[in-house]
Hints:
Blueprint: E1 12-20, E2 25-32, E3 36-45, E4 51-61, E5 64-69, E6 79-89, E7 94-103
Antiparallel strand pairs: 1-2, 2-5, 3-4, 3-6, 6-7
Amino acid sequence: MYVTEAADVPMAMGLEFYLEPFDGQYHYQLYMVEDAESVTVDLYDDKTFAFKETILQLNDQSKGVVEGSLKKDRIPAKGSYVANITVITTNGEKYQYQTPILIEDTLRQE
């Protein structure tokens, strides 16, 4: 038996985005399957799919768990979004994944 195609394995998995009540910041966490040249998370309106904003841009990211927090000016307004995660691997391949995101409270100064 021969296998001629590789399985489609996501390059990024398990995006978590949450407000930490103790420090009042939004934190993110995701798992990278392999090293990436860049990782971008863009938000789109969940009803119209109109682009809203880029909330995360990481360069030269190593595989494994990626954790961090967003600066106040990067926290989106309260609402429901579709997050588009774009991963560009070190060999130039581009992968995109979508997941729903709900922002229940915001610290953004508008």
